[in-house]
Amino acid sequence: MTTRKIVLLAIFFALLAICIVQGVLGSINPVKIIKTDATPDTITISTATEQTVLSLNNGSWFIGDDNYVATKTDVDSMIKAIKEIKVLDKVGRVGSAQDEKYNLTDEKARTVTAVKAGKEIAVIRIGKTTSTNAQTYACVNGKNDIYLLSGNLVSTFSKSAAELRSKTIYTVEENDFVSAQVTKGSRTWGIEKNPDDKNNWILTGAAPEMQLDQELARSWVQSICFMNINSWIDDGTPLPANKLTSFQMQIKSGATIIVDIYEQPAGDDTKYIGTCNLTPHKFDLTKYLTEKFAKDCTELQTK
Prior knowledge:
Blueprint: H1 3-27, E1 32-35, E2 42-46, E3 51-57, E4 60-63, E5 68-69, H2 72-83, E6 84-93, H3 96-101, E7 110-116, E8 119-129, E9 135-140, E10 145-150, H4 153-157, H5 161-164, E11 168-171, E12 177-184, E13 187-194, E14 197-205, H6 214-224, E15 226-228, E16 231-232, E17 243-251, E18 256-266, E19 269-276, E20 279-285, H7 287-293
Antiparallel strand pairs: 1-6, 2-3, 2-7, 3-4, 4-5, 6-10, 7-8, 8-9, 9-10, 11-15, 12-13, 12-17, 13-14, 16-20, 17-18, 18-19, 19-20
């Protein structure tokens, strides 16, 4: 073999080795994942001025001791961030200068503590985000290292207790619906499935003799199978004297959902305040939502 061929082969194998090394290095995921398989049943978010505690009870997450249900999507985002912490880089160590630089001082940091059955499963001390708001500086599980984490954890964990309150009073599957009654004044009318034809509806109570539009009836039933309010109001707010309507729904489990709606003149407008037996708290309703629960049966007749 000539010297020229030997040199060419040497160069070839050298280049091949470089390609292999680069391929191996390129295939290594630079992201380190701190993962836990445990799902928390308590999440505490602490700042220098406030503390918010979320706790799981009978499948629902509650905020503090006030029996407000937390918005499911917000809690789901928190749990996802807790169970899989993606570390992009180590940027420093805890110290006065570094703490201030990354908003990790006691005055500015936000600490998230996740607990399962009384045992801590994750602690994240959250500082500031990067300029792109796509990463967050934080310390994890009590370590002194400051990491750059994937995701905007400030946004995920920054909502106040009031902002975390779900505005969904109830959601019922249409197949679980049995019947409903609307009381306005001294008259109560209702609707239920026709016992002789489960695909159709019949009127009950004080409803007048009329031709029921089955599509309108079905659409109304679908609309009352959920209730999303406008906003919560202070528990000390007195209820207006005038009760506009009382609504009741029976579901297959045997439970009854009761919604009472009161109206109060407010200048040229009317304010609507509601209560429900599923929550101890009062809430505001829009006119549109009020009209849905105060519907007159004549609105469902065939035109």
